[in-house]
Protein backbone atom coordinates (compact mmCIF):
# COMPACT_ATOMS: atom_id res chain seq x y z
CA UNK A 1 0.00 0.00 0.00
CA UNK A 2 1.34 3.46 -0.87
CA UNK A 3 0.69 6.71 0.95
CA UNK A 4 1.23 9.84 -1.12
CA UNK A 5 1.03 13.32 0.33
CA UNK A 6 0.41 16.25 -1.99
CA UNK A 7 -0.03 19.88 -1.02
CA UNK A 8 -3.53 21.19 -1.78
CA UNK A 9 -5.63 24.17 -0.90
CA UNK A 10 -9.00 23.26 0.68
CA UNK A 11 -11.94 23.90 -1.65
CA UNK A 12 -13.53 26.17 0.94
CA UNK A 13 -10.52 28.46 0.98
CA UNK A 14 -10.00 28.35 -2.78
CA UNK A 15 -13.58 29.40 -3.42
CA UNK A 16 -13.32 32.04 -0.73
CA UNK A 17 -10.38 33.62 -2.49
CA UNK A 18 -12.09 33.49 -5.84
CA UNK A 19 -14.88 35.54 -4.28
CA UNK A 20 -12.45 38.04 -2.76
CA UNK A 21 -12.89 41.48 -4.31
CA UNK A 22 -10.06 43.13 -6.21
CA UNK A 23 -10.61 46.62 -4.96
CA UNK A 24 -7.83 49.08 -4.26
CA UNK A 25 -5.65 48.33 -1.26
CA UNK A 26 -6.38 50.15 1.94
CA UNK A 27 -4.63 53.24 3.14
CA UNK A 28 -2.92 53.12 6.50
CA UNK A 29 -3.41 56.17 8.63
CA UNK A 30 -0.61 56.82 11.08
CA UNK A 31 -0.54 59.41 13.83
CA UNK A 32 2.74 61.26 13.38
CA UNK A 33 3.66 64.24 15.57
CA UNK A 34 0.01 64.79 16.39
CA UNK A 35 -1.09 64.89 12.74
CA UNK A 36 -3.10 62.20 10.95
CA UNK A 37 -1.33 61.38 7.69
CA UNK A 38 -3.04 59.42 4.94
CA UNK A 39 -1.04 57.00 2.80
CA UNK A 40 -2.45 55.15 -0.19
CA UNK A 41 -0.87 51.73 -0.54
CA UNK A 42 -0.54 49.77 -3.75
CA UNK A 43 -2.31 46.47 -4.25
CA UNK A 44 -0.47 43.21 -3.51
CA UNK A 45 -2.14 40.39 -5.50
CA UNK A 46 -2.13 36.94 -3.90
CA UNK A 47 -1.77 33.85 -6.08
CA UNK A 48 -4.72 31.47 -5.78
CA UNK A 49 -2.47 28.38 -5.71
CA UNK A 50 1.24 28.74 -4.85
CA UNK A 51 1.96 25.09 -5.68
CA UNK A 52 1.43 25.03 -9.43
CA UNK A 53 5.15 25.38 -10.18
CA UNK A 54 6.45 21.82 -10.73
CA UNK A 55 9.97 22.93 -9.76
CA UNK A 56 8.66 23.68 -6.30
CA UNK A 57 7.43 20.10 -5.74
CA UNK A 58 9.35 17.33 -3.99
CA UNK A 59 8.38 13.66 -3.75
CA UNK A 60 9.92 11.06 -1.43
CA UNK A 61 9.22 7.61 -0.03
CA UNK A 62 8.72 7.72 3.76
CA UNK A 63 7.05 4.62 5.26
CA UNK A 64 4.71 1.65 4.89
CA UNK A 65 1.02 2.12 5.59
CA UNK A 66 1.19 -0.42 8.43
CA UNK A 67 3.95 1.51 10.19
CA UNK A 68 1.34 3.72 11.87
CA UNK A 69 -1.46 2.56 14.13
CA UNK A 70 -4.62 4.55 14.72
CA UNK A 71 -3.91 7.53 16.96
CA UNK A 72 -0.24 7.71 16.05
CA UNK A 73 1.80 10.56 14.58
CA UNK A 74 5.21 10.50 12.90
CA UNK A 75 7.59 13.12 11.56
CA UNK A 76 8.70 12.16 8.06
CA UNK A 77 11.66 13.67 6.23
CA UNK A 78 11.35 14.62 2.57
CA UNK A 79 14.95 15.75 2.18
CA UNK A 80 14.20 19.47 1.99
CA UNK A 81 11.82 19.53 4.92
CA UNK A 82 9.56 17.50 7.18
CA UNK A 83 5.84 16.78 7.43
CA UNK A 84 3.66 15.34 10.18
CA UNK A 85 1.94 12.12 9.13
CA UNK A 86 -1.12 11.18 11.20
CA UNK A 87 -3.40 8.17 11.29
CA UNK A 88 -6.76 8.51 12.97
CA UNK A 89 -9.91 6.39 12.55
CA UNK A 90 -8.23 4.46 9.76
CA UNK A 91 -7.48 7.56 7.67
CA UNK A 92 -4.17 9.24 6.95
CA UNK A 93 -3.61 12.98 7.16
CA UNK A 94 -0.51 15.10 6.68
CA UNK A 95 0.22 18.65 7.80
CA UNK A 96 3.17 20.82 8.78
CA UNK A 97 5.22 19.34 11.61
CA UNK A 98 6.00 22.56 13.54
CA UNK A 99 3.60 24.79 15.45
CA UNK A 100 3.60 28.16 13.63
CA UNK A 101 3.56 29.98 16.99
CA UNK A 102 7.06 29.25 18.37
CA UNK A 103 8.06 26.17 16.38
CA UNK A 104 7.19 23.36 18.82
CA UNK A 105 7.40 19.82 17.36
CA UNK A 106 3.78 18.75 16.99
CA UNK A 107 4.73 15.07 16.99
CA UNK A 108 5.26 15.53 20.75
CA UNK A 109 1.82 17.08 21.12
CA UNK A 110 -1.58 15.52 21.73
CA UNK A 111 -3.78 13.98 19.05
CA UNK A 112 -7.48 13.88 19.91
CA UNK A 113 -10.71 13.86 17.93
CA UNK A 114 -9.44 15.26 14.66
CA UNK A 115 -6.99 17.83 15.94
CA UNK A 116 -3.44 18.03 17.28
CA UNK A 117 -2.62 20.25 20.26
CA UNK A 118 0.80 21.90 20.62
CA UNK A 119 2.81 20.52 23.58
CA UNK A 120 4.25 23.92 24.53
CA UNK A 121 1.47 26.50 24.46
CA UNK A 122 -1.72 24.61 23.61
CA UNK A 123 -2.54 25.82 20.08
CA UNK A 124 -4.80 23.36 18.22
CA UNK A 125 -4.90 22.48 14.52
CA UNK A 126 -7.42 20.51 12.49
CA UNK A 127 -5.61 17.49 11.03
CA UNK A 128 -7.86 17.44 7.96
CA UNK A 129 -7.45 21.07 6.92
CA UNK A 130 -4.48 22.33 8.95
CA UNK A 131 -6.63 25.22 10.15
CA UNK A 132 -5.87 26.71 13.56
CA UNK A 133 -8.78 26.06 15.94
CA UNK A 134 -7.37 27.27 19.24
CA UNK A 135 -4.58 29.65 20.03
CA UNK A 136 -2.00 31.25 20.50
CA UNK A 137 -0.60 32.06 17.06
CA UNK A 138 -2.13 33.44 13.89
CA UNK A 139 -1.18 31.04 11.12
CA UNK A 140 -2.48 27.59 10.22
CA UNK A 141 -0.49 24.55 9.14
CA UNK A 142 0.11 23.68 5.49
CA UNK A 143 -2.01 20.69 4.55
CA UNK A 144 -0.72 17.93 2.27
CA UNK A 145 -2.88 15.52 0.29
CA UNK A 146 -2.53 11.85 1.22
CA UNK A 147 -2.81 9.08 -1.38
CA UNK A 148 -2.52 5.33 -0.78
CA UNK A 149 -1.05 3.27 -3.61
CA UNK A 150 0.43 -0.22 -3.47
CA UNK A 151 2.78 -0.90 -0.54
CA UNK A 152 4.96 2.19 -0.44
CA UNK A 153 4.37 5.55 1.16
CA UNK A 154 5.21 8.65 -0.86
CA UNK A 155 4.89 12.30 0.10
CA UNK A 156 4.55 14.90 -2.59
CA UNK A 157 4.79 18.41 -1.25
CA UNK A 158 5.73 21.98 -1.99
CA UNK A 159 9.27 22.87 -0.99
CA UNK A 160 8.06 26.30 0.03
CA UNK A 161 5.40 24.87 2.35
CA UNK A 162 7.86 22.43 3.90
CA UNK A 163 10.30 25.23 4.61
CA UNK A 164 7.87 27.81 5.98
CA UNK A 165 5.73 25.31 7.99
CA UNK A 166 2.90 27.83 8.11
CA UNK A 167 -0.09 28.93 6.06
CA UNK A 168 -2.03 32.18 6.24
CA UNK A 169 -5.69 31.53 5.58
CA UNK A 170 -7.23 33.14 2.50
CA UNK A 171 -8.79 36.53 3.17
CA UNK A 172 -11.05 39.00 1.47
CA UNK A 173 -10.19 42.61 0.71
CA UNK A 174 -12.18 45.78 1.01
CA UNK A 175 -14.33 46.23 -2.10
CA UNK A 176 -13.88 49.98 -2.52
CA UNK A 177 -12.48 52.47 -0.08
CA UNK A 178 -13.54 55.35 -2.31
CA UNK A 179 -17.08 54.94 -0.97
CA UNK A 180 -15.98 55.79 2.58
CA UNK A 181 -15.46 59.02 4.42
CA UNK A 182 -12.30 58.94 6.52
CA UNK A 183 -14.47 59.51 9.58
CA UNK A 184 -16.70 56.49 8.95
CA UNK A 185 -16.05 52.75 9.10
CA UNK A 186 -18.10 49.57 9.23
CA UNK A 187 -15.99 47.92 11.95
CA UNK A 188 -13.97 49.90 14.48
CA UNK A 189 -11.57 48.01 16.75
CA UNK A 190 -10.25 49.91 19.75
CA UNK A 191 -6.99 48.23 20.71
CA UNK A 192 -4.35 46.55 18.54
CA UNK A 193 -3.31 43.60 20.66
CA UNK A 194 -3.99 39.93 20.01
CA UNK A 195 -7.78 40.24 20.42
CA UNK A 196 -8.07 43.18 18.02
CA UNK A 197 -5.82 41.68 15.35
CA UNK A 198 -7.47 38.24 15.43
CA UNK A 199 -10.86 39.91 15.15
CA UNK A 200 -9.78 41.81 12.04
CA UNK A 201 -8.17 38.74 10.47
CA UNK A 202 -11.17 36.53 11.20
CA UNK A 203 -13.51 39.03 9.54
CA UNK A 204 -11.40 38.95 6.39
CA UNK A 205 -11.09 35.14 6.51
CA UNK A 206 -14.86 34.89 6.63
CA UNK A 207 -15.18 37.00 3.48
CA UNK A 208 -16.02 40.34 5.09
CA UNK A 209 -15.18 42.97 2.48
CA UNK A 210 -16.21 46.19 4.19
CA UNK A 211 -13.97 48.73 5.89
CA UNK A 212 -12.04 47.73 9.06
CA UNK A 213 -10.18 50.29 11.17
CA UNK A 214 -8.02 49.47 14.20
CA UNK A 215 -6.79 52.18 16.55
CA UNK A 216 -4.14 51.97 19.25
CA UNK A 217 -2.37 54.24 21.71
CA UNK A 218 0.85 52.43 20.83
CA UNK A 219 3.41 53.71 18.34
CA UNK A 220 3.67 50.32 16.66
CA UNK A 221 1.61 47.88 14.66
CA UNK A 222 0.46 44.84 16.70
CA UNK A 223 3.35 42.96 18.32
CA UNK A 224 3.97 39.86 20.46
CA UNK A 225 3.69 41.48 23.89
CA UNK A 226 4.65 38.37 25.96
CA UNK A 227 8.11 38.48 24.39
CA UNK A 228 8.76 41.79 26.13
CA UNK A 229 8.89 40.11 29.52
CA UNK A 230 9.80 36.51 28.76
CA UNK A 231 13.30 37.49 27.60
CA UNK A 232 12.68 36.58 23.98
CA UNK A 233 12.84 40.20 22.84
CA UNK A 234 15.43 41.41 25.34
CA UNK A 235 18.34 39.81 23.53
CA UNK A 236 20.27 43.03 23.00
CA UNK A 237 20.25 46.68 23.92
CA UNK A 238 19.12 47.62 20.44
CA UNK A 239 16.26 45.27 19.57
CA UNK A 240 13.64 46.61 17.17
CA UNK A 241 9.84 46.36 17.43
CA UNK A 242 9.70 44.83 13.95
CA UNK A 243 11.41 41.74 15.39
CA UNK A 244 8.32 40.91 17.43
CA UNK A 245 5.65 42.23 15.06
CA UNK A 246 2.69 39.86 14.77
CA UNK A 247 2.32 40.82 11.12
CA UNK A 248 4.54 42.92 8.82
CA UNK A 249 3.30 46.21 7.36
CA UNK A 250 2.71 44.49 4.03
CA UNK A 251 0.11 42.23 5.60
CA UNK A 252 -2.10 45.16 6.60
CA UNK A 253 -1.69 46.67 3.15
CA UNK A 254 -2.55 43.43 1.38
CA UNK A 255 -5.71 42.71 3.37
CA UNK A 256 -7.00 46.26 3.75
CA UNK A 257 -6.80 46.48 7.53
CA UNK A 258 -6.29 50.13 8.45
CA UNK A 259 -4.34 51.09 11.55
CA UNK A 260 -4.40 54.38 13.49
CA UNK A 261 -1.36 54.53 15.78
CA UNK A 262 -0.93 56.86 18.76
CA UNK A 263 -4.67 57.47 18.77
CA UNK A 264 -6.57 57.33 22.06
CA UNK A 265 -10.35 57.02 22.27
CA UNK A 266 -11.68 59.35 24.97
CA UNK A 267 -15.38 58.46 24.82
CA UNK A 268 -17.94 56.32 22.99
CA UNK A 269 -21.36 57.65 22.03
CA UNK A 270 -23.36 54.43 21.73
CA UNK A 271 -26.59 56.17 20.71
CA UNK A 272 -25.06 57.74 17.61
CA UNK A 273 -22.36 55.05 17.16
CA UNK A 274 -19.47 57.48 17.33
CA UNK A 275 -16.03 57.07 18.90
CA UNK A 276 -14.53 60.37 20.08
CA UNK A 277 -10.73 60.55 20.13
CA UNK A 278 -8.63 62.52 22.59
CA UNK A 279 -7.57 64.98 19.88
CA UNK A 280 -11.22 65.69 18.97
CA UNK A 281 -11.36 63.46 15.88
CA UNK A 282 -14.64 61.50 15.59
CA UNK A 283 -15.33 58.25 13.78
CA UNK A 284 -18.69 56.66 13.08
CA UNK A 285 -18.96 52.88 13.21
CA UNK A 286 -21.47 50.13 12.59
CA UNK A 287 -19.87 47.41 14.74
CA UNK A 288 -17.46 48.11 17.59
CA UNK A 289 -14.92 45.90 19.36
CA UNK A 290 -13.36 47.19 22.58
CA UNK A 291 -10.06 45.41 23.25
CA UNK A 292 -8.11 48.00 25.23
CA UNK A 293 -6.39 45.57 27.61
CA UNK A 294 -5.18 46.83 30.94
CA UNK A 295 -3.06 49.58 32.48
CA UNK A 296 -0.19 48.71 34.84
CA UNK A 297 -0.49 49.89 38.42
CA UNK A 298 2.11 52.39 39.54
CA UNK A 299 3.79 52.65 42.93
CA UNK A 300 2.20 55.13 45.30
CA UNK A 301 5.21 55.66 47.55
CA UNK A 302 7.36 58.73 48.08
CA UNK A 303 9.73 59.40 45.16
CA UNK A 304 7.69 57.48 42.61
CA UNK A 305 8.49 60.07 39.93
CA UNK A 306 12.28 59.54 39.92
CA UNK A 307 13.99 58.41 36.72
CA UNK A 308 14.75 54.78 35.84
CA UNK A 309 11.56 53.32 37.30
CA UNK A 310 9.65 51.27 34.70
CA UNK A 311 6.54 49.31 33.92
CA UNK A 312 7.66 47.21 30.94
CA UNK A 313 4.86 48.02 28.54
CA UNK A 314 6.55 48.77 25.22
CA UNK A 315 9.61 47.64 23.22
CA UNK A 316 11.23 50.94 24.14
CA UNK A 317 10.75 50.16 27.85
CA UNK A 318 12.34 46.74 27.40
CA UNK A 319 15.38 48.11 25.56
CA UNK A 320 15.86 50.82 28.15
CA UNK A 321 15.71 48.38 31.06
CA UNK A 322 18.31 46.07 29.50
CA UNK A 323 20.65 48.96 28.83
CA UNK A 324 20.36 50.41 32.34
CA UNK A 325 20.43 47.06 34.16
CA UNK A 326 23.53 45.54 32.57
CA UNK A 327 26.18 45.20 35.33
CA UNK A 328 24.04 47.39 37.63
CA UNK A 329 21.78 46.91 40.66
CA UNK A 330 18.16 46.05 39.86
CA UNK A 331 15.15 46.05 42.18
CA UNK A 332 11.94 44.43 40.97
CA UNK A 333 8.74 45.20 42.85
CA UNK A 334 6.14 42.43 42.64
CA UNK A 335 6.60 38.67 42.21
CA UNK A 336 4.05 38.66 39.39
CA UNK A 337 4.58 36.86 36.08
CA UNK A 338 6.16 40.03 34.73
CA UNK A 339 8.35 40.56 37.78
CA UNK A 340 9.58 36.98 37.96
CA UNK A 341 10.25 36.65 34.23
CA UNK A 342 12.19 39.91 34.10
CA UNK A 343 14.15 38.90 37.22
CA UNK A 344 15.09 35.59 35.60
CA UNK A 345 16.28 37.32 32.45
CA UNK A 346 18.31 40.00 34.23
CA UNK A 347 19.90 37.65 36.80
CA UNK A 348 22.77 36.82 34.44
CA UNK A 349 23.21 40.39 33.21
CA UNK A 350 22.83 42.64 36.24
CA UNK A 351 25.27 43.01 39.11
CA UNK A 352 22.44 42.21 41.53
CA UNK A 353 18.72 41.47 41.33
CA UNK A 354 16.46 42.01 44.35
CA UNK A 355 12.78 41.16 44.32
CA UNK A 356 10.27 42.74 46.73
CA UNK A 357 6.91 41.03 47.32
CA UNK A 358 4.03 41.44 49.77
CA UNK A 359 3.18 37.71 49.84
CA UNK A 360 5.14 35.00 51.66
CA UNK A 361 6.12 33.13 48.47
CA UNK A 362 5.90 33.97 44.74
CA UNK A 363 2.85 32.78 42.80
CA UNK A 364 1.14 31.59 45.99
CA UNK A 365 -2.37 32.49 44.86
CA UNK A 366 -1.85 31.13 41.37
CA UNK A 367 0.37 28.02 41.71
CA UNK A 368 0.05 27.34 45.43
CA UNK A 369 2.61 27.56 48.23
CA UNK A 370 4.55 24.35 47.47
CA UNK A 371 5.11 25.15 43.80
CA UNK A 372 5.84 28.77 44.72
CA UNK A 373 8.57 27.73 47.14
CA UNK A 374 10.15 25.42 44.56
CA UNK A 375 10.26 28.26 42.05
CA UNK A 376 11.64 30.62 44.69
CA UNK A 377 14.43 28.16 45.48
CA UNK A 378 15.36 28.01 41.78
CA UNK A 379 15.62 31.81 41.69
CA UNK A 380 17.74 31.95 44.85
CA UNK A 381 20.18 29.46 43.33
CA UNK A 382 20.52 31.92 40.43
CA UNK A 383 21.52 34.91 42.63
CA UNK A 384 18.09 36.53 42.97
CA UNK A 385 17.57 37.92 46.48
CA UNK A 386 14.00 37.96 47.84
CA UNK A 387 12.51 40.45 50.31
CA UNK A 388 9.12 38.99 51.15
CA UNK A 389 6.13 40.23 53.15
CA UNK A 390 7.14 43.86 52.77
CA UNK A 391 6.51 46.84 50.50
CA UNK A 392 8.36 49.84 49.12
CA UNK A 393 8.06 52.95 51.28
CA UNK A 394 10.36 55.31 49.34
CA UNK A 395 12.41 55.65 46.17
CA UNK A 396 15.50 57.79 46.78
CA UNK A 397 17.27 59.69 44.05
CA UNK A 398 20.61 61.25 43.33
CA UNK A 399 20.69 63.98 40.68
CA UNK A 400 17.15 62.97 39.68
CA UNK A 401 17.97 59.30 39.07
CA UNK A 402 17.13 56.31 41.23
CA UNK A 403 19.75 55.48 43.87
CA UNK A 404 18.03 53.46 46.60
CA UNK A 405 14.79 51.61 47.34
CA UNK A 406 13.63 51.83 50.94
CA UNK A 407 11.38 49.05 52.26
CA UNK A 408 8.79 49.30 55.02
CA UNK A 409 10.82 46.72 56.91
CA UNK A 410 13.58 49.33 57.13
CA UNK A 411 15.91 47.63 54.66
CA UNK A 412 17.60 49.91 52.11
CA UNK A 413 18.46 48.39 48.73
CA UNK A 414 20.94 49.85 46.25
CA UNK A 415 19.18 50.35 42.92
CA UNK A 416 20.12 51.79 39.53
CA UNK A 417 16.89 50.64 37.93
CA UNK A 418 13.52 49.51 39.25
CA UNK A 419 10.92 47.43 37.40
CA UNK A 420 7.38 47.53 38.77
CA UNK A 421 5.04 44.56 38.36
CA UNK A 422 2.35 44.96 41.00
CA UNK A 423 -0.68 44.22 38.87
CA UNK A 424 -2.91 46.08 36.46
CA UNK A 425 -6.39 47.53 36.09
CA UNK A 426 -8.67 47.32 33.02
CA UNK A 427 -8.24 50.24 30.62
CA UNK A 428 -11.93 51.10 30.56
CA UNK A 429 -12.13 54.49 32.24
CA UNK A 430 -13.28 56.15 29.01
CA UNK A 431 -16.44 53.98 29.05
CA UNK A 432 -17.83 55.05 32.43
CA UNK A 433 -20.52 57.32 30.98
CA UNK A 434 -21.14 55.27 27.84
CA UNK A 435 -23.92 52.99 29.04
CA UNK A 436 -21.82 49.89 28.42
CA UNK A 437 -22.06 47.54 31.40
CA UNK A 438 -18.90 47.77 33.55
CA UNK A 439 -18.54 45.81 36.81
CA UNK A 440 -17.25 47.14 40.14
CA UNK A 441 -13.63 46.36 39.22
CA UNK A 442 -13.82 48.14 35.89
CA UNK A 443 -14.16 45.05 33.67
CA UNK A 444 -16.52 45.05 30.68
CA UNK A 445 -19.20 42.40 31.14
CA UNK A 446 -19.86 40.22 28.07
CA UNK A 447 -21.78 37.05 27.28
CA UNK A 448 -20.49 33.85 25.64
CA UNK A 449 -20.55 35.57 22.25
CA UNK A 450 -18.39 38.46 23.54
CA UNK A 451 -21.36 40.82 23.23
CA UNK A 452 -21.87 43.65 25.68
CA UNK A 453 -25.29 44.88 26.79
CA UNK A 454 -25.30 47.25 23.80
CA UNK A 455 -26.27 45.78 20.39
CA UNK A 456 -23.38 45.87 17.94
CA UNK A 457 -20.78 46.49 20.67
CA UNK A 458 -18.40 43.65 21.51
CA UNK A 459 -15.46 43.44 23.92
CA UNK A 460 -12.49 41.08 24.23
CA UNK A 461 -9.19 40.45 25.96
CA UNK A 462 -7.82 41.43 29.36
CA UNK A 463 -10.50 44.08 29.97
CA UNK A 464 -13.50 41.72 30.06
CA UNK A 465 -15.25 39.20 32.27
CA UNK A 466 -17.02 36.39 30.44
CA UNK A 467 -18.79 33.10 31.26
CA UNK A 468 -16.21 30.28 31.45
CA UNK A 469 -17.79 26.96 30.47
CA UNK A 470 -15.09 25.06 32.37
CA UNK A 471 -16.28 26.63 35.64
CA UNK A 472 -20.03 26.28 35.09
CA UNK A 473 -20.25 29.61 33.24
CA UNK A 474 -18.90 31.60 36.16
CA UNK A 475 -18.00 35.15 35.05
CA UNK A 476 -14.20 35.35 35.11
CA UNK A 477 -11.36 37.52 33.90
CA UNK A 478 -8.58 35.56 32.18
CA UNK A 479 -5.82 38.02 31.19
CA UNK A 480 -3.79 35.61 29.08
CA UNK A 481 -2.42 35.75 25.54
CA UNK A 482 -4.21 32.61 24.30
CA UNK A 483 -7.57 33.75 25.63
CA UNK A 484 -7.27 37.17 23.97
CA UNK A 485 -6.83 35.45 20.60
CA UNK A 486 -9.96 33.36 21.09
CA UNK A 487 -11.99 36.33 22.31
CA UNK A 488 -11.14 38.20 19.11
CA UNK A 489 -12.18 35.30 16.91
CA UNK A 490 -15.49 34.74 18.71
CA UNK A 491 -16.29 38.47 18.56
CA UNK A 492 -15.63 38.59 14.81
CA UNK A 493 -17.79 35.54 14.08
CA UNK A 494 -20.67 37.04 16.02
CA UNK A 495 -20.34 40.39 14.30
CA UNK A 496 -21.21 38.28 11.26
CA UNK A 497 -24.14 36.69 13.13
CA UNK A 498 -22.65 33.19 13.37
CA UNK A 499 -24.01 32.63 16.86
CA UNK A 500 -20.69 31.17 18.08
CA UNK A 501 -20.14 30.72 21.83
CA UNK A 502 -16.75 30.59 23.54
CA UNK A 503 -15.80 27.24 25.07
CA UNK A 504 -11.99 27.19 25.08
CA UNK A 505 -9.84 25.98 27.98
CA UNK A 506 -7.49 28.71 29.31
CA UNK A 507 -3.82 27.90 28.61
CA UNK A 508 -0.73 29.85 29.62
CA UNK A 509 2.98 29.46 30.13
CA UNK A 510 5.86 31.19 31.86
CA UNK A 511 9.59 30.84 31.10
CA UNK A 512 12.38 31.28 33.67
CA UNK A 513 16.05 30.22 33.54
CA UNK A 514 15.43 28.05 30.49
CA UNK A 515 12.57 26.19 32.17
CA UNK A 516 8.87 26.53 31.47
CA UNK A 517 5.78 26.09 33.59
CA UNK A 518 2.72 25.27 31.52
CA UNK A 519 -0.79 25.71 32.89
CA UNK A 520 -4.30 24.88 31.70
CA UNK A 521 -7.70 25.47 33.26
CA UNK A 522 -8.86 28.06 35.75
CA UNK A 523 -7.76 27.39 39.31
CA UNK A 524 -9.12 30.49 41.01
CA UNK A 525 -10.32 29.53 44.48
CA UNK A 526 -8.68 26.06 44.50
CA UNK A 527 -8.76 24.35 47.90
CA UNK A 528 -6.08 21.68 47.42
CA UNK A 529 -3.11 20.82 45.21
CA UNK A 530 -2.11 17.25 44.29
CA UNK A 531 1.59 17.06 43.39
CA UNK A 532 3.00 14.24 41.27
CA UNK A 533 6.73 14.09 40.58
CA UNK A 534 9.58 15.86 42.37
CA UNK A 535 9.39 19.56 43.22
CA UNK A 536 13.04 19.67 44.30
CA UNK A 537 14.11 18.36 40.91
CA UNK A 538 11.69 20.76 39.18
CA UNK A 539 10.03 17.83 37.42
CA UNK A 540 6.44 17.79 38.55
CA UNK A 541 2.74 18.03 37.77
CA UNK A 542 0.37 19.98 40.04
CA UNK A 543 -3.37 19.34 39.90
CA UNK A 544 -5.53 22.11 41.40
CA UNK A 545 -8.80 20.87 42.87
CA UNK A 546 -11.96 22.44 44.17
CA UNK A 547 -14.62 20.29 45.86
CA UNK A 548 -12.94 17.08 44.62
CA UNK A 549 -12.84 18.27 40.99
CA UNK A 550 -9.67 19.13 39.08
CA UNK A 551 -10.06 22.69 37.79
CA UNK A 552 -6.50 23.35 36.57
CA UNK A 553 -3.12 21.71 36.04
CA UNK A 554 0.47 22.99 35.94
CA UNK A 555 3.67 21.18 35.05
CA UNK A 556 7.40 21.60 34.64
CA UNK A 557 9.48 19.15 32.58
CA UNK A 558 6.49 16.87 32.06
CA UNK A 559 5.35 17.73 28.53
CA UNK A 560 2.81 17.17 27.10
CA UNK A 561 0.77 16.44 30.24
CA UNK A 562 -0.82 19.90 30.41
CA UNK A 563 -1.94 19.64 26.79
CA UNK A 564 -3.36 16.18 27.48
CA UNK A 565 -5.38 17.41 30.45
CA UNK A 566 -6.50 20.45 28.43
CA UNK A 567 -7.97 18.07 25.85
CA UNK A 568 -9.86 16.19 28.55
CA UNK A 569 -11.24 19.44 29.97
CA UNK A 570 -12.11 20.67 26.47
CA UNK A 571 -14.24 17.54 26.02
CA UNK A 572 -16.25 18.60 29.10
CA UNK A 573 -15.02 15.59 31.06
CA UNK A 574 -14.70 15.83 34.83
CA UNK A 575 -11.40 14.76 36.39
CA UNK A 576 -11.75 13.80 40.05
CA UNK A 577 -9.14 14.36 42.69
CA UNK A 578 -8.91 10.62 43.32
CA UNK A 579 -8.12 10.07 39.62
CA UNK A 580 -4.87 12.05 39.80
CA UNK A 581 -3.87 10.93 43.30
CA UNK A 582 -2.98 7.37 42.25
CA UNK A 583 -0.24 5.50 40.42
CA UNK A 584 -2.49 5.42 37.33
CA UNK A 585 -1.31 8.96 36.69
CA UNK A 586 2.10 7.69 35.58
CA UNK A 587 0.48 5.18 33.23
CA UNK A 588 -1.51 8.04 31.77
CA UNK A 589 1.59 10.12 31.15
CA UNK A 590 3.89 7.38 29.86
CA UNK A 591 1.46 5.64 27.51
CA UNK A 592 -0.57 8.63 26.45
CA UNK A 593 -3.74 6.61 27.05
CA UNK A 594 -6.44 9.02 28.20
CA UNK A 595 -9.21 6.47 28.40
CA UNK A 596 -8.89 6.06 32.16
CA UNK A 597 -9.61 9.77 32.51
CA UNK A 598 -12.22 10.24 29.83
CA UNK A 599 -14.17 7.23 30.99
CA UNK A 600 -14.74 8.73 34.44
CA UNK A 601 -16.96 11.56 35.60
CA UNK A 602 -19.67 13.00 33.45
TrEMBL record:
Q: Which CDD domains match?
A: Rieske_AIFL_N (cd03478)
Q: What's any one GO cellular component for it?
A: mitochondrion
GO process terms (BP): execution phase of apoptosis
**Could you name the domain of life of the organism this protein comes from?**
Eukaryota
InterPro entries in UniProt? FAD-oxidoreductase/Apoptosis (IPR050446), FAD/NAD-bd_sf (IPR036188), FAD/NAD-binding_dom (IPR023753), FAD/NAD-linked_Rdtase_dimer_sf (IPR016156), Reductase_C (IPR028202), Rieske_2Fe-2S (IPR017941), Rieske_2Fe-2S_sf (IPR036922)
Function statement: Induces apoptosis through a caspase dependent pathway. Reduces mitochondrial membrane potential.
Signal peptide (residue range): none
Task: Enumerate the subcellular locations listed in this protein's record, separating them with semicolons.
Answer: Mitochondrion
Q: Chief localization class?
A: mitochondrion
What are the alphabetically sorted keywords of the record? 2Fe-2S, Apoptosis, Electron transport, FAD, Flavoprotein, Iron, Iron-sulfur, Metal-binding, Mitochondrion, Oxidoreductase, Transport
Instruction: Tell me one GO molecular function of this protein.
Output: metal ion binding
Q: What is the recorded name of this protein?
A: Apoptosis-inducing factor 3
By its UniProt entry, which Gene3D superfamilies does this protein fall under?
Answer: 3.30.390.30, FAD/NAD(P)-binding domain, Rieske [2Fe-2S] iron-sulphur domain
Give the family, as the similarity comment puts it. Belongs to the FAD-dependent oxidoreductase family.
Q: Which Pfam families match?
A: Pyr_redox_2, Reductase_C, Rieske
Record domain Rieske: where: 60-155
Question: Iron: is it a keyword of this entry?
Answer: yes
Amino acid sequence: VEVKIEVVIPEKERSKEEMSPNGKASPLIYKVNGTARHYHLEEHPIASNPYHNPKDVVEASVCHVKDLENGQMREVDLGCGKALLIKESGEFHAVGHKCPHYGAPLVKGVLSKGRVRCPWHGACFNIGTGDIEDFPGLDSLPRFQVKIEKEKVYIRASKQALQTQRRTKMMAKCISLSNYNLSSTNVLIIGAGAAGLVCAETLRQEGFSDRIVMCTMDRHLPYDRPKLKKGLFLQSMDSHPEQIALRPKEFFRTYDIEVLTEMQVAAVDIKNKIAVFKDGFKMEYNKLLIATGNTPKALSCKGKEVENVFNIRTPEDANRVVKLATSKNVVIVGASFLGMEVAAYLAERAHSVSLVELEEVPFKKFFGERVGRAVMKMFESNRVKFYMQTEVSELREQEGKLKEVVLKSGKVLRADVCVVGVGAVPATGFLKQSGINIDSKGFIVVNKMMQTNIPGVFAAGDAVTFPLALRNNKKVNVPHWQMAHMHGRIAALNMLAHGMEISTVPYLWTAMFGKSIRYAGHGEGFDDVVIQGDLDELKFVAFYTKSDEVVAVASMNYDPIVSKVAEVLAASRIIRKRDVDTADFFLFFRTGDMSWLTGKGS
